[in-house]
Amino acid sequence: MLRLKNIRKDYIVGDTIVHALRGVSIELRKNEFVAVLGPSGCGKTTLLNIIGGLDRYTEGELSVSGRSTEKFSDTDWDAYRNYRVGFVFQTYNLIPHQNVLSNVELALTLSGVPKAERQRRAIEALERVGLGDQLKKRPNQLSGGQMQRVAVARALVNNPEIILADEPTGALDTENSITLMEILKEISKDRLIIMVTHNSMLAEKYASRIVKLLDGEIIDDTNPYVSEEVPAEPAVKKARGRSRDEKIKKPSMSFRTALSLSVNNLMTKKTRTFMTSFAGSIGIIGIALILALSNGIQLYINRVQEDTLSTYPITLEAETIDLTSLLKTLSEKSGGKTKTDEELGNYVYVNNVMYDLMNTVNKTATTKNNLSAFKKYIETPDENGKLPLDGSASSIRYEYGTDLNIYVTDKNGDIIKTDTISMIQNMMSSAVGGDSSGLGDFMKMTTSSGSMSMYSSLKVWEEMIPPAKDEDTDSLVGGILTEQYDLLYGSWPKSYDEVVLIVDSNNQVNDLVLYSLGLLTAKEMYDSFMAIQSGEDAPVDLGPFSFEEICDTTFRLVLPADYYVYDDATGTYANLADTELGLSTLYKNGLEIKISGIVRPNPDAVATAIGGGIGYTTALTDYIAEETATRDVVKRQLADKETDILTGLPFPDEDVAELTDAEKADAVREYFKGLSAAEKAVAYTEIMSVPS
Ligand code: ADP
Ligand code: MG
Asked: Phi, psi (5° rounding) for residue 163?
């Protein structure tokens, strides 16, 4: 079934190499129960991950049913992981708010099996593990042993030829371990089970073969096997020749392929294929992530903790979308069968892609986190004066939904707002002439919900992480950040109204940043864009700019509350930014922000906290919050929560927004009707970036 020949796996961690596997050769039968024993860190998990196709080997050869995986394409690997292998982990990884049956079904949902069959197969798998009478229970109503059996049923439901179990009894007591082993033994009659365990007693009692691993090498094998050299089955035939009598399924697309599908393709190809495949691939990635997280990467984490903190921060959001149910809804949409020509007649039908997408995202459950309580908790010291996260987090940064309204006078003397959305709006109006602020609102609407923004990678302004501990630096940043960056010019911010420009290793900034510095206008950007479209060189000559010139830039910050002036006549507030005069008044009275220095990532830093752009300090955020709270408009609004004091009207009742599906569809259609072709393109792109 499987043959490993001299498999080696090296992990490169910083500048050392970890030899996790040092030449493993072994052959495994189609039906057997193999237990892999060995001390912690000897490479068991690595071996399992390689066999399961979750990790690639560095050297050697792995063959599946006589076919070498050397020439496996991404699609082959996906098919292999999806349909031929099942995984069981030490932690059960069940979805807490879904019942036992749905948990098992989910594995099939993601591979696009129709509902009725899904249920039948899930029940069958649960019966096999003795849980046929617990279908409607939720994971927290089960014992650990039962949860692990649900996990086994989930691995089994796709009827894979190989089941990989990484310390499945690790968290179970003896009795539950024995039950589980009996089930695995039973299952191994018609498939290959490879189980990693610490418990040699269990292994000896139940496994048909014990393989011992030490320091990345096999040191013992109780029941070795050498197959006769059979000619390799060609790829296509093998898929068809699968012993289980199922039709060949179209394997899921790889994650990358799915991502690379552009909106264009989406609009023309069958959406349902895309959705199913996309969802399926996320399932795989999810499993790979869980594996990676629950196992081997600790060493790596320790080693580069400081550096990666900034690249892989743990982010807690006030509101998150439940991705699992999103995927489920999306893939359920993909059901349905092709109609006959008679049923169809001579008509062209419409597939409501945009509406479905928006509606699904809208309907998907969002989880709300109580971040204020959490913030209070992590900021309350215990009796020894220790904070709960002392020693576990290098730095904590709070992000607020503050609008950073920063303006600059560009080289033409125009006052412009220096963020990406305004820039795009500006560029659009260069393109179409007139007003495209509606589009901006749309983009804000779609970007404000969660982190689903394609603009997050295009951010110009970024808050820097504050000092790790209160060090006696005279700057407002320190710790990791100052270790990661070299100061090229000037100084790190010393007060809240100072920011730094971050350049890359070649002292470059991107054109978006240049726009924000007022050194490139939207018109020039648009002209270059058009020139490139028609194959010409960009007409604008960009830089270089001297450090002094850059640091001469002065920005103006306008507090969101300051836009509004009270109008005695109407008893409401007017937005000053709506008029040119108002805007220039706001600008003149805005807080001056200076660039105090220019910094560049240190060549020794493995990863850096901020990608490039303009970095401001936490002190500025605090300033905005504190100042805003003193404003009249804010105080009034807080005093009267029922009324939108800007308009004098009551806030819309959220329940009123409960529209029927058809009404929503109409609303969405109406909205899109009003957009120009260019605006539609942006909107589509924006919506498609949601699943990332
Ligand atoms: P086991 O499962 O037997 O405890 P692993 O297979 O997890 O061992 O790990 C084998 C060796 O490889 C260990 O030294 C471990 O630290 C290292 N290792 C595993 N995964 C990674 C990784 N992603 N990056 C770096 N080193 C790793
Ligand atoms: Mg392990």
From this structure: -120, 130
Specify the residue with its C-alpha closest to ligand 1, atom 5: 43
Spacing, Cα 361 to ligand 2 middle (Å)? 37
Distance 690 CA to ligand 2 centre (A): 34
Token pair of 129 as six digits: 């593990």
User: Whose Cα sits closest to atom 2 in ligand 1?
Assistant: 45
User: pLDDT confidence of 630, banded at 50, 70, 90?
Assistant: very high
Protein residue closest via CA to atom 26 of ligand 1: 11
Strand 32-37 with 59-64, pairing: unpaired
Among residues 74, 78, 50, which one has the least CA distance to residue 164? 50
Q: Is the pLDDT of residue 309 over 80?
A: no
CA distance 12 to 6: 19
Q: Is the pTM above the cut of 0.70? A: no
The residue nearest atom 12 of ligand 1, judged by CA position, is 20
Using most ligand atoms within 8 A of CB, pick from 9, 11, 90 the residue to mutate for ligand 1.
11
User: What pLDDT does residue 326 have?
Assistant: 59
Q: Ligand 1: distance of its center to the CA of 9 in Å?
A: 10
Which phi and psi (to 5°) does residue 27 adopt?
A: -120, 140
Nearest atom in ligand 1 to the alpha carbon of residue 21 is 10
Per-residue pLDDT averaged across 127-141, rounded? 92
Burial of residue 379 (number of CB atoms within 10 Å: 0-12, 13-18, 19+) = exposed
Look at residue 301 in the predicted model and tell me its pLDDT: 41
Mean pLDDT of the chain: 75
Per residue in 33-44, pLDDT tens?
Answer: 999 999 999 999
Q: Which ligand is nearest to the CA of 36?
A: 1
Whether 665 shows a pLDDT value over 80: the answer reads no
d(CA 471, CA 31): 62
Pocket test residue of 7, 9, 24, 46 for ligand 1, highest count of atoms within 8 A of CB:
46
> Which of 110-114, 265-269, 577-581 is most confident?
577-581
Nearest to 560 by CA among 541, 586, 579: 586
Share of the chain above pLDDT 70, in %: 66
> Tell me, what amino acid is at 685?
T
Q: Which residue has tokens 């003795």?
A: 130
| Residues in contact with ligand 1 (CB, 6 Å cut-off) | 11, 13, 18, 20, 38, 40-46, 295-297, 299-300
Q: Looking at the CA of residue 9, tell me the nearest atom of ligand 1.
A: 12
Angle at 258 between CA 255 and CA 259, to 5 degrees: 85
**How far apart are alpha carbons 398 and 396 in whole angstroms?**
7
Confidence of residue 458 (pLDDT cuts 50, 70, 90): low
